[in-house]
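Case study: Amidohydrolase 3 domain-containing protein.
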Amino acid sequence: MQLDLKLTGCRALTMDPARPAAHTIGIWQGRIAGLDEQVEGLPAAETVDLGGAVVLPGFIDAHTHLAWNGRRTIDVTGLATVSGVLDRLAGAPGTGWIEASGYDPRIMDRPLTATDLDGISGGRPVYVADLSGHACVVNSVVLRQLPGITSDGWLTENEQLAARTLRLPYSLDEIVAELRTSAGQVLAEGVTTCAEAGIGAGLIASSPLEAAAYQRARLPIRVQLMVSAYVLHDVAADPADGIPRAIDLGLHTGFGDDMLSLGAMKLWTDGGMIARTAALTEPYAGTDNSGQLAESEEFMRAAILDGHRAGWQLAIHAIGDRAIDFTLDAVAEAQRQRPRADARHRIEHCGLVRPDQLGRIAELGMIPVVQPTFLHAYGDDYSEIMGPRRAPWMYRGRSFLDHGITVAGSSDRPVADGAPLRAIEFMVRRRSSGGRAVGPDEAVTVEEAIRAYTLGGAYACRKEDVLGSLTPGKLADLVVLGEDPRTSDAIADIPVLATMVGGNLVPQRSG
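Here is what the predicted structure looks like once written out:
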């Protein structure tokens, strides 16, 4: 047997307890053929000496938004004055919609309004998205097309969705370009597999034909598509099947191949912390606002029950503890009505988890898909709005693991920095960008944090048989680092030297 590629001189952390370390990796037909003595005597078409570099399994981002991240909009990130935002938007090229992103109402000198936007729009519709994707500011041209909505331009959740729907759809060519831009970015950060969190309809969707864009794009990374629950529709199936609603052809989680497949069905139960719409059992500190559920409880419960019956793994957006209560109750009801072993339903974000909820998450076998970088970027603000009693409950780590819960790491890119190494550092240090300790008792070890972005992500995506560890027989996806995260004082700054997807080793940057 001749290997296609042999990597030598590496310090591999395999994440496989049966063989936790290796110095030689053999690759054949896009898979790991063997490690160390298993391949040392075999010839190879190519041998690459990594010179002592550290090798990990390729990072898995279990919840991200590639098209949104790659979208060409006007960037107003960091602008703190209305005049600054308007100056950035004035004279926008083109004749159609003026679209901007990165608006942060928390830092503004005053709220941006529709009247402000009218002054620079030239009669064009204007849509300014906030950082979280759960709110926006629009001008009067847009508001006039939204009957029944009275607003000064600030819209959240379903009102925001109504405004965004006026702009849709984006063309397949636009989406393909966005996907290719994002794929290059994530590869440079060591990410080899992404779960796209919601296509087809809903807050993040770009087109009802969105899956076709992923087929056309032929991305150099693996992608698993989460389909929006909004596309469920009545089907005339045999009553004995017990499936009242599905998507066309009865497709569900698992369809596809190793490069592009259907993952979970995505649904939303509340909003976000930046927009103050995450649903809480107690108000945000210093306010009488407890956030909001995304839809009626009847609508959301029906989507969970029908999606479960139709064979989907469910990816349920629930940030606030009230939304998590609803999610746990609905999933428990779904399992009572139609028990499914190893359903692996997920809680996307799982942002504020009370101590009494931990046992229920474990009992139901649900997987928190967390975004640690949220607390690095926004931890100072989130700690203030939660108050000292609740702040330690945010985006937990240690408590999940101590309850036997599998944790999957993700980015929610572009809401925050998408680099896994940044997230891993936060999981270990639990320090915000401002230096504030945020739930320090939730800190985990470096290897536990890496596991969240490798085996944990693979498990959440039902791909642990082929991804997540450097194990013979698994797909040859890996990342080459310039330093060992286990001994580094600055994990987020470790250079990514190369990435590999299916045996294709691609240099990223020099160390």
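For the exam, be able to explain this: The domain at 73-156 is CATH 3.10.310.70 (Diaminopimelate Epimerase; Chain A, domain 1).
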